[in-house]
Amino acid sequence: MSDTHTILFKTLSDPTRRAIFERLCREGDKTVGALTEHAGVSQPVVSKHLRILKQAGLVSGLHEGRQTHYSAQPDALSPLRDWTAQMAEFWEGRFDALENLLKRIDQ
Amino acid sequence: MSDTHTILFKTLSDPTRRAIFERLCREGDKTVGALTEHAGVSQPVVSKHLRILKQAGLVSGLHEGRQTHYSAQPDALSPLRDWTAQMAEFWEGRFDALENLLKRIDQ
DNA sequence: CCAATTCATACCCCAATGGATATATGTTGA
DNA sequence: TCAACATATATCCATTGGGGTATGAATTGG
């Protein structure tokens, strides 16, 4: 199931990877070297995480000489925002679901 | 790193598990047997997924005789909603970040 | 009281994944 | 041209995790 939601959740489920994405959102674009400094893992691992983030559409990379500048693309988060909103929406239609359940069982 | 965000993302990253949660949001509470019917996996696997969803706070279970009724708790999604909103928020302060990057490199 | 039912737990297996190190590729500066 | 640098790729390893089957525990109906 190569679903968009699955890819997004899976990509963001790793703390190291999510931290990289957060830094790019907070502080703007950065090179691989700069990202490696505070990542707590080796440079190849950072590159691998960036590759996964890129495949998920969450970051994009631009080559400048021997450096690569990565920047966040938070628009890619919109499926997640939509999904969470939809789940909450479904729930609103049954706001008293728990009470109903308790009543049903209690009778 | 037992972070809340990590747990939520990880829990929702599995399609089978997310489908169970979605069904509970859409259709209200269900027993393990009812959930197993359309899950595509065996009952023990469904129970295991429910256990993980419960640990993440996304569902709650109530015993009624030999059945267990599970219901969704979409309020547990709020950290996700907050996180995505915050990431987008950070980004707004640098809406022209990509253009700046291109300009910087292009010069 | 016993058999069937419902769910949870235990155990095993295999694929996926995050990490490391080594190395390849490409780029700049002297 | 050549050495240093920046990044990507390759390979390996240990762990995680999702799936299955078998079985335990609890409850109900006859």
TrEMBL record, chains A, B:
Matching InterPro entries: ArsR-like_HTH, HTH_ArsR_DNA-bd_dom, WH-like_DNA-bd_sf, WH_DNA-bd_sf
Give the coiled coil ranges: none
Q: Can you provide one Gene Ontology molecular function annotated for this UniProt record?
A: DNA-binding transcription factor activity
List, for all copies, the residue spans of the domain called HTH arsR-type: 1-92
What protein does this entry describe? Transcriptional regulator
Organismal lineage: Bacteria, Pseudomonadati, Pseudomonadota, Alphaproteobacteria, Rhodospirillales
